[in-house]
Design brief:
heterodimer, A: 168 residues, mainly alpha, Four Helix Bundle (Hemerythrin (Met), subunit A), 8 helices, globular, B: 102 residues, 3 helices, 75% helix, 0% strand
Chain lengths: 168, 102
């Protein structure tokens, strides 16, 4: 990936998420997050993960953020817009976050990459990313894949039960 | 191959993760706290995709698919809890919800 493009994407991703998480109006925050997810999808494309870039846009920007928008629509956000944005402990929060950030920057200063796998860029290019990912997912990881569908089923049932008006 | 080293992706992922941590620790609105969790999960996804690319191994991308699954379930359940909470308390501010306080 072009270093200038990477620089722009990095600045846009961190800047957009920082701006989104400090907005007063949650609708503005969600819309900025959608823009941020599109930038992340471009980054995934640069890393040779086309399928994940598509999933990022379809699932995150298309489904999860729309779910957020629907819930915000159901709630009364007047109070949130008028009230304070941050809790009283925000200096502690910002110092904890920046302290952890510095610590992790120091810790990841010399990462030693592990063992190289067999899926080099040439191998993936010869059979496309989606096909290679599918061949790994449906053979080696078939059991976790089935478990993921169970997780989604539990989430569907749980969300309906929790948001129901009255249980008889 | 890729002129941007692995380090750059890891540091970008760290910066994104810390933005999420900051939002989660400081915002009063539960909706914004959920959004912070999504930001943190995306930071982890980014580092997994970067490792997958630089180690020539597709297992990182498989893991990202599972993380996205869990993130979707978490958002659905969390927002359902928020809806039922709002129905009972008519507020989405964390410092006004203190029944469980000892």
């Amino acid at each position: 990936m072009n270093p200038y493009l990477f620089g722009y994407l990095a600045a846009a991703i961190v800047g957009l998420s920082a701006v989104a998480l400090t907005r007063k109006n949650p609708v503005h925050a969600v819309l900025l997050m959608i823009v941020m997810f599109f930038h992340l999808a471009v980054l995934y494309l640069g890393l040779g993960a086309e399928f994940l870039a598509a999933v990022q846009i379809i699932v995150y920007a298309g489904a999860i953020m729309v779910l957020f928008l629907f819930v915000i629509m159901m709630l009364n956000i007047k109070e949130e817009i008028e009230g304070e944005r941050f809790t009283g402990g925000w200096p502690l929060g910002i110092s904890l976050a920046s302290g952890l950030f510095l610590l992790l920057i120091i810790m990841t200063g010399n990462v030693l990459p592990g063992q190289q796998g067999i899926y080099t860029a040439q191998v993936i290019a010869s059979q496309t990313d989606t096909k290679a990912l599918g061949s790994v997912l449906y053979t080696q990881y078939i059991f976790p894949f089935e478990l993921a569908s169970l997780v989604l089923l539990v989430a569907v049932v749980g969300a309906i039960v929790l948001a129901k008006k009255k249980l008889r | 191959m890729n002129p941007v080293p692995l380090q750059g992706y890891i540091w970008l992922s760290l910066a994104l993760f810390m933005t999420g941590v900051f939002g989660f620790l400081t915002r009063r609105s539960i909706i914004l706290m959920f959004l912070s969790i999504e930001v943190m999960l995306n930071a982890v996804n980014l580092s997994l995709v970067a490792f997958s690319h630089f180690l020539n191994d597709l297992r990182g991308q498989v893991l990202v698919l599972f993380v996205i699954t869990v993130a979707a379930s978490e958002a659905a359940i969390g927002l359902a809890i928020l809806v039922s909470l709002f129905r009972n308390r008519a507020t989405a501010q964390i410092d006004k919800i203190s029944e469980m306080k000892g």
